Fold these 3 entries.
Entry 1:
Amino acid sequence: MQRTLIRIGPRQVVGFCLALSAFELLTYMASDLIMPAMLSVTEEFQADVRHVPNAFNLYLLGGVCLQWLLGPMSDHWGRRRLLLIGCAAFAAACAAAFATRSIEVFNALRLIQGMGLGFVVAVSYPALQEVFCEADAVRLMALLGNIALLSPLLGPMLGSVLLEWLTWRELFLALGIAAVLVWLGLYACMPETVGVIRRDGQQQARVAFSMRQIRQRYLALLGNPRFLGASLALGLMSLPLIAWIGLAPLLLIQGLGLTPLTYGLWQIPIFSAVIVGNLILNRLLVTHSLSRLIQLGLWPFCLGLLALIGCAMQGLGLTATVASLALYAVGLGISNAALYRLALFCSDDSKGLVSAMVGMISIAAMGIGGSIIAAIGGGTRLEFFALWAALGGLMCLPLLLWFLQDAKTAFAAPE
C-alpha cells in the first residue's frame, strides 16, 4: 500500500500512518479506558450515576462542537498545523483530569478531551484521503477503524486491570503523557497536504477563510439531500454500538453485578466482530464497488438488529444480546468506511469542510440518540436497551436505501 499521491518517502508514510492511528486510538482510549472506573468517579465526587452515560455523551458532543470550524481552518492554514494544535490540547486536557476535584470540572474536561475526536475527523481524515488514492484510502480508513476499535475492545478490560495498580486520575495522566509522544510523531512524520501538488498533478488548493463564505458553504451542504442522508445514516448505523459503550457499565456492573474485568471481557465479541467486518471489507474492495459493499453489509447489520429486538421481546439475556450485537457489528464493519468515502465525495467542496460536516452530523446523531436511549430507560434493563438500540439503528434503512438507489453513487469519488 505505497501508492501515495503526496511526495513523501516510505518511512514517512509509515510514520504518518502510525502517528495518525495512535492519535485516533488515544482519543477513544480517553473514553473507554476509564469506563470501568466511572462508578468510582461518581462515588468519589458524590454524584448521581446518571453522570456515567452523561460523561460519555459529553465526550461525543466535544467531538462535534468544533468540527464546523476545524475543517475550514485546515483548508486555509493546512492540516498539519491544526492537527498538532489539537493533539497538544488533548494532551493538556487529559493531564488536567489528574487534579480535578468536582464532577462538573470532570465533565467539562470530558468535553474538551472529546474535541480531540473532532480533530481526528475534520483534519486527519481529509489528510489521509489526500495522501492516498481511493482504494488505499478506503483500506486505510478500515484499518484505522480496526485500530480505533482496539480501544472499546481492550480499553474496558485493560482499564480494569490497570485500576488494580493505578487510580483513575493516574490513568488520565498516562494518557496525557502518551499524547505528548504522539505529538512528537506527528511533528516528525505528518506531511502538509493543502497547497501541495500531488504526484497525479492535482492540488488541494488553500481556501480563503471567510465566515460568510463558510456559512454559505455549510448551508449548501445542508441543501444537498444525498450528502445529508449519507451523513445521518452514518450516525444512525453506529448508534447501537455507541449506546452500548455508554450504557454497558450500568447494565453489566450495576444491573447484573458483574466485576469490571468480566464487563471488559463481554466487550470482546462485539468489537472483534467489527474488526472482522473491516477485514471482509478489505478483501472485497478489489472486486466490488463501494455501494455494493454497503448493500452486502446491510444483511448482517439488519439480521443482528432484528435478533436484538427478539432478545428484548423474549428476555433472552446477556449472551443472546451480545451475540446479536456481534452480528450487527459485522455488517457495520463492512459498510462504515465505504459509506464515509461516498458521503465525503457527495460534494465537490473542500474535503476539510465536508469531512467536518460529515462528522458533526454523524456524531450528533450518535450523541443525541444515545442520550435519548439513556433517558427512556436503556440503562436500567438489558431488554430496554436491546429494543431501543435496535430501533435506533434500523432508522438508517430508509436513508441508506434511498441513497443507494442512484447507481452513480458508486462512481462519485474520483479514482
Note: The CA atoms of residues 3 and 132 lie 6 Å apart.
Entry 2:
Amino acid sequence: MPDGVVQLLPTGFDPERFTPRPGDLAVMQSGDLLLRAGAGFDDWATLLARRVQRADLATASVDLSRGIALLEVKGRAVEASDGHAHGSANPHWWLDPVNAKTAVASIAAALLAADPAREAVLSARLDAFNASLNAGLARWSAALAPYANQPVLAYHNSFPYLARRFRLDIAATVELREGVSPGPARLAEIADIARSKHVRLLLVEQADPGQLTPALTRAAALTPVALPSNGEAPGETYVAMMDALVARLADAFAKVGA
C-alpha cells in the first residue's frame, strides 16, 4: 500500500468543474485504492480510471455514496458527464455528518481488505474518528438548534443534506440547473420568494459563490453566507470543516436576527 493519500482534486477547487490534469493519470496509475464521492459528483475520476490499464484498480474503486440514503434520487444509473451536472441523486451527502460516518466506515473496510495486517491500527483510527464526529455532531446540533425551521435560500443545490440534519428550510434554490446561471426572470422570482417567506440568508459555496449573487442580494435584501462545503484549507479535517461551516452559519443567523 502507498505510504499516504494523494489528493487528485486541488484544495479549494470546485469538484464539479474540475478537469483532470495530464499528471493525474500517472498518479492514478500508481495508486492502490481510488475513493470517490459518487452519485455523479466526480465522474471525471471514473473516466480517468478507465484510462488506467489495471484491472485491480477498477475493483479497488470505492463509491463512498453506497449505503447512504441519498436525496433527490433519479431512476437511472449514473452516467459520466461533463463533470458538473448531478448524476443519479444529489451528491453532497457529506454535509450530513451521519453520512460521513458511513463513508468513513467504507474507507476503513476498503483499507482493511487491501491490508489485513493493519486491522488494529485501522480499528483504533476509526474509533477515534467516530468519537470526534459524535462530539462534533452534538456541538453542531446545539449551535443550530435555535434556528430550526428558519427559511434560507441556496444558490446551488448543495445543502439539502445539511438542511435535513439540522432542520433548516430551504425555501428555494436559485439555480434551476446545476452550473447554469439564472436569468432576470428567475432572479425576480427568487426575490419574490425571499420577500414572501421573510428569508434573510442566501447560502453559497465558498468555492463557487455564483456570478449573480450581488444582484440577487440587493434585489431581495439577502445576506450571502459563503460556506466551506468541500474543504477549502490544506490539511483540513472533516470535523474542522464542519466546525467552520456551522460557526459561520450560526453567526449569520444571529446577525440577521433570525
Note: The two ends are 50 Å apart (CA to CA).
Entry 3:
Amino acid sequence: MTGIAILPAGRDDAFEQYKQLIRDRHPIEDIGSYLNDEDLELFRTTSDDDLVHVWGTSVDGVWRNIERNDIALVYHDGAFVARGQVLQLRHDPDLAEYLWRKNVEHGRWNEEIPWEYMAFLTDIEEVNVDIEEFTELVGYDKTYRQQGFTRVADKRLNQLSGEESVKTVIADLTDAGEHIHPVGDEDDGPTPDLADQLQAASTDGNAHEEFEKLVAKVFSGLCCAADWIKREAYPSPSQPEAGGRPGLR
C-alpha cells in the first residue's frame, strides 16, 4: 500500500536545505556522473526543466522501509510545509557528500552521520498543515511532535483510509495532490443501461467526471483494476485540454 514518509526540516539549517534541494531543486546534469543510465532517464522524463528534488538521511533503518510512490511530507516548525511523492531511493555516500558538503549553502556535513540514504521526489507542492491535524488523522498522541525521519506504520494507514486511498486522504488533508477513488464491484456496480449512460455522458461537454466514472465502471466490469482520479479543474468545452493528467488509470 502507499505509505507516508515524514522528512524533518526542523532546524534552521535543515529548513534552508529543504528550500535549496526540495523546493528549488538541483540540476540533474550536475550529478549525472553519480547516476546510472536508468536513474538519469527516470529523472529526466519526470522533470520539465532537468531539475530534481532530493532529500537525505543517516537513518538507514527507516529509509529501507520507504517505497517508491510513497507520499512524502516535509515537516518544519509545527506544520507540514510541502508534500510530494517518492520517485527513487538511492544509497550513495559519494553523491551525498557532493550535494551536502559542496553544494548546500547552509549545510552541516558530518562524516560520522552522513545523509547518504537519499530519496528523490516528484510532484512537490507547498502546503500548510498543522501537525495536530495530522496527529489526529493517523492516531498519534496530541503531544506528538516530529523529531526525525520516519515512515507512518501501515496499521495506522489501514485504519484511516477505509474505502478511500491513502493518497486521497492526504490530498484532502493538504488540499494538494490527486484524489484517487478505487472503482470496484462495490462502487454501485454496472447497470443495464450503462451503455446508454456512457453514450450520453460522452457527448455532454459538462459531464467530464460522470464520463470518467462510467469508463472506470466498464473496465472494472471487465475484471480490470480501475482508479478514478479526481481533477482539480476540467477544461471547458470551448477550450480543449492541452496535455494534463488523465482522469482514469
Note: The beta strands are 4-8, 26-27, 51-57, 71-76, 79-91, 117-130, 150-151, 179-183, 226-230.
